[in-house]
Amino acid sequence: MKIIKVKNPTEGARKAFDIYQAALSSGVKVLGLATGSTPIALYKELTNSDLNFSNITSINLDEYLGLDGDNEQSYRYFMNQHLFNKKPFKKSYVPDGISEDHKAAAEQYDKIISEHPIDLQLLGIGLNGHIGFNEPRTAFDSTTHIVDLTQSTIDANARFFDNSTDVPTQAISMGIASVMSAKEILLMAYGADKADAIAAMVNGPVTEKVPASILQNHKNVTIIIDEAAATKL
Q: Which ranges carry the Glucosamine/galactosamine-6-phosphate isomerase domain (predicted)?
């Protein structure tokens, strides 16, 4: 793992932008993308740049179950607002959260990933060490699947909703094996509340209790963290 320590998310976004710029220059064709507050500054850097994504395919990590793309809390809506509407891609995939057949939707997403191998995967990390919505004890060989969100994840996401009772309790998520199939992985994390998860990911044992710990086994991982998130390394 390559660890880059920055002063704040703004500096982190600039460092991440440099990685994306290099990736596009090297000819990558598929980007794995993430949602949440962490990548917003990066997406702003990308949209304000002259980088061209018209020949690039994007594949997002996850989506809430029960929310369609017009719902302001859906991850499709988030991506449209922060990136896709400003920087159109050749094709942008987000898991189907409203399919009546969740198993078929998961299998279809695995097919998409198989047909479009991910060159660079962007990740955040949950307070409990999750990547994507792969909660603790998710099998390392998992592919796209339906997730029952833990209470800590629901609580952490409640800030984005008007009422805590509106937070979805399930999601459809790219699996850990799918994340690990990416040629390169970039993980960003900021704030003291992420320090325990970062320490467990980097220095702890590789265990399904901390899903992100599997990244120790990947050959090309860059981690961008601020000083607060790095305090327990």
A: 22-221
